[in-house]
Write the structure tokens for this entry.
Amino acid sequence: MNARWRRNPLGWVGIVLLMLMFALAIGAPWLAPYDPARLSGKPFEPPSPAHPLGTNDIGQDILSELIFGARVSLLIGVLSALIAIGIGTTVGLLAGFYRGIVGTILMRAVDVMLIIPVFPLMVLLAAYLGQSLWNLVAVIGLLGWARPARIIRSQVLSLVERDYVIAARAIGARDARIVVRHVLPGVLSLALAQFVMAASSAILTEAGLSFLGLGDPTQKSWGSILYYAQARNAFLSGAWAWWVLPPGLMIAVSVLGFALAGFALEDALNPQLRTDR
């Protein structure tokens, strides 16, 4: 795996991008020139040495909002991915290990989740539950587990045919012990790759929901910055160049970083997914 990872330059590009994004989020109190909630300039002030990305319609520094927004966007992405992968791994293990009625019921649930238009359902649930960071995390995480579950189940179906699993069953080992000791370690690497991909999707989904006005109004994320820019006439005032483009670019870079790292992990950890490119 290590040799194949070293030969994948795009994977390293993704890792570097993610390191930069997380360093920005962790160092926000020291890197941001102003308190993002404080009025530090005139409304719609263009970029200048005092405000490298200008100010918004009430005089808040956009660069500071962007830096602190990394904390919220990445937090939602990581927590949502943890929920989705936790549920997906559990469902995938059970559906692959128990091939009878339990596996059938679970896979039908997965099929239903995969054919439902998930984003409109997220919009409805987020609007019903109310504007809250934790509501966004719950909605994105609880509706994002189906794809990882299907992929992990496929891996489990292969693992349960291995000799050591068959031998464990032959000597009378309990199902729980077989799953924990012999099957789960074989899917953890694939679950890690799916976690990275789920985090990428969660960040993009949070941006979409926040852009629709369903984000937490007390927390500035990259998506909510775009929402306020659109709602407060950034395009009509000519401020779109420093108010809209930077958060859009941050979303794109973070999603790209997670995606490249996720594809590289899948390629390195699961030889069956490897293709010559």
Q: What stands out?
A: The chain has one domain: 12-27+61-271.
